[in-house]
Amino acid sequence: MKKERKKRLRRIAERLKLRRARRQETVIGKITITHSGYGFVSLPEDEHGEKPDDVFIPAQFVGDAMDGDEVKVAILPPRPERPGEGEKGPAGKVIEVLNREREELVGELLAGHRVRPLNKRMPEEIEISGARNGAKRGDWVRVKLLGHEDGVWRGTIRKVLGRAGVIAADLDAVMAEYGLASPYSDSDNLEAEKIEPREIEREDHTKALTLTIDPFDAKDFDDALSIAPGKDDSEVVIGVHISDVAAYITPKSKFDKQAEKRSFSCYLPGRTLPMLPKALTAKISLRAGADSRAHTVFLTVEKATGRVVSFRRCHTLVRVDHRLNYEEVQEFLDKGKAPDDWSAELRDSLKLLLEMTRKMRQYRRETEQFIEMDLPEIRVLCSESDNKILGLVSKTPRESEQLVEECMLAANSAVGIELGQKSVAGLYRVHPAPDPEKIEEFTAIMQESFGLTPGDLTERKACNAFLASLPDDPRRPVILSLLLRSMPRAYYLEKPALHFGLGKGRYVHFTSPIRRYPDLIVHQQLWNLDTKSRTRTVATMARVAADCSMKEENNDAAYFAANDRLKLRYLEEKLEAGGENFYEGVIVKVVSGGLQVDIRELGMYGFVERERLPGEYRRSDFGFREERGHKSYKPGDFIYLRLSHIDFARGSALFVPAGITR
Predict the structure, then answer these.
(1) Residue 220: pLDDT above 90?
(2) Which H/E stretch holds residue 391?
(3) Rounded Cα–Cα distance for residues 80 and 565 (Å)
(4) Strands 152-163 and 114-117
(5) Burial class of residue 547 (count of CB atoms within 10 Å of its CB; 0-12, 13-18, 19+)
(6) Measured between alpha carbons, how far is 603 from 379 in angstroms, rounded to an integer?
(7) Cβ(403)–Cβ(353) under 8 Å?
(8) Cα separation of 301 and 101, whole Å?
(9) pLDDT class for 15, splitting at 50, 70, 90?
(10) Sign of CA dihedral 180, 183, 184, 189
């Protein structure tokens, strides 16, 4: 651990030297614009294969750059009035846009020939020139950008997409803005349904008790589990059976190209956009009561410790005996209650799976020190048939889900190891260690707003110690959310590298080939290995890794845009219906115009305008302080609110302190 720490400190020192040497240079890279208007420019690797630090672009120096543009940046010298700024990374000014990422965007037509973009990373408003082409105020429109002059973006309306506020039109707008592929056509489904599987030598495991555990409304079933005694009484063998999608999807075939184009199934609230045609996924899913083709990893696990002592991968034929959902399995784990049709063998298998996965998780906790975050996800439930909003659901990982996850993690790790052993090009899932500067910023927020000192969060052990120390109150999920924002994204890479969150160094995605192209391409590589066919090259995998990483981020952005939009619709419907209107929040940021508040039960930020606060307040270093009293508002404080109204044009929910009626 000490050697690793010394190496990391040396790397930080080297980066600081590079920053100082680069102060007066110009650099070229891709800019990412945040919701707050400032940006970061990502630079390509240097000649040593090292990734330089991103260049921070203050909002006033973004110029006419848009999110995703390739830009030339002049590095700014540190400001003398802010000593030490030079140690916090380079800042720069955009001096030229070299290549535009996009020529069009989607937004809502407002009064005065203005369009507000759906994507909050885009300019705040576009002035429309020329005819409206039939568009009316409140319509979603596709806009062609004409240029940027005197601080104003101008564009022309190309197409009307639908009425903002109609959920189907809102989802159409999200799909158009983020370039999501349309669902497969009926003819595609008919063609896909006719695909016959390729043959390969298979082991018959149809006699082994096999089960699936999925959400109650799952439509695709690409994984199943079994458990059996090992050759030694001290071991058990867990079978992780994955749908053998490579038997149906050959490299460079029509639906392989379509799957690569999509890269992932996209699950918008109220609309599912599958990576593969539905007719095909229904055919290749591991169906209950039918013999199914699977690609299986058998894990030999030590009973006493939960250590995976060995693994074996092969193509199999399996028969799912029981289709289970997380809710009923959780009921069984919590209370021992099981449906009447559960056999004694099924109950015993579930008990043993639970016992072993608990030990496997504890063994990983001790040896790999993975980061344990239990931040709940709040998502909108929206029916796909009629686009009715059904409510919000909070999803926190339960032990029934952890049981499945533990087996999938072990299978993914095993496949990653085998790819390396057999020198087959792979697609690895990597997660870089946290950037010390971002951790420093997070630490400052924790100390100033929450009175907490996190420690060195670039170390997993310190990170878990900090997480274990967090208060068990509404501040905890807020802190977890802020910590997640300070961590880098995981992505795909053609070579193995650290997955910081899991504490693994050779990890791939293998267990979801129906909905993720990175998993499918790994299956295809292994199929070709097993049939002594030519596998894809490292160069090909590098291209696919970059493409999948980009599309995953785009899919996530589309999901959050749709989820946030439908949450506003849900709140509007709830407000109009009357009833309870009371929320607890935690202040996360104080700006001149008011308070940004994290409202956990909604999984969103709300805003309280300064003029809606009771009394007169002045801005202080920490927040707002009452002019003639002791009341104050600062980050980390609890605040009780009621919803005032929804500003759909700006995509925000406005609240007032509870008890305020004006």
Answers:
(1) no
(2) strand 389-395
(3) 43
(4) unpaired
(5) middle
(6) 8
(7) yes
(8) 49
(9) low
(10) positive
Q: Which residue has the tokens 């999608």?
A: 245
Note whether 564 and 556 are within 8 A (CB).
no
Element (DSSP H or E) covering residue 656: strand 652-657
Would you call 573 exposed, middle or buried from its count of C-beta atoms within 10 A (0-12, 13-18, 19+)?
exposed
DSSP letter at 534?
Answer: P
Mean pLDDT score, 113-135: 92
| Token reading at 543 | 């291209």
DSSP-derived secondary structure letter, 67 = T
Query: Which pair of tokens denotes residue 207?
Result: 């006699």
Instruction: Name residue, tokens 């000649």.
Output: 47
- Which amino acid would we find at residue 88? K
Cβ-proximal residues to 169 (8 Å cutoff; 6+ apart), any chain: 140, 161, 162, 163
Q: Residues 453-457: contacts with CB within 8 Å, 24+ apart?
A: 457/483
* Cα–Cα nearest to 350, from 395, 403, 294, 387: 403
CA-CA distance, 11 to 28, in Å (whole number)? 23
Report whether pLDDT(462) > 50. yes
Number of Cβ within 10 Å of residue 290's Cβ equals: 11
d(CA 318, CA 289): 10
For the chain, what is the total number of helices (H) and then of strands (E)?
13, 31
Give the β-pairing of 70-76 and 91-99: antiparallel
- Alpha carbons within 13 A on the beta-carbon side of 145: 22
Helix axis angle, 167-178 relative to 538-577, nearest 10°? 150
Q: Two tokens at 646?
A: 């929804």
608 φ, ψ (degrees, to nearest 5): -115, 115
Amino acid at 236: V
Query: Would you give the DSSP letter of residue 421?
Result: H
Whether the full predicted model's pTM is greater than 0.85, yes or no, is yes
Phi/psi of residue 257, nearest 5 degrees: -65, -40
Structure tokens at 609: 């305008």
Supply φ then ψ for residue 536, to 5 degrees: -65, 155
Quote the Cα angle for 331-334-336, to 5°.
75
Residues 614, 660: contact at Cβ < 8 Å? yes
Q: Phi and psi of 659, rounded to 5°?
A: 100, -15
Contact 653, 646 (CB under 8 A): yes
- Please state the separation of Cα 90 from the chain's center in Å: 28
Contact criterion met (CB below 8 Å) for 615 and 631: yes
Residues 6+ apart with CB under 8 A from 272: 219, 265, 266, 384
Q: Residue 47: pLDDT band by 50, 70, 90 thresholds?
A: low
What is the share, in percent, of the chain residues with pLDDT greater than 70? 93
Average pLDDT, the chain: 91
For 77, 221, 222, 575, the CA distances from 293, given in Å and listed in that order, are 62, 12, 11, 51
Instruction: Choose among 113, 90, 120, 107: nearest CA to 20.
Output: 90
Contact 329, 400 (CB under 8 A): yes
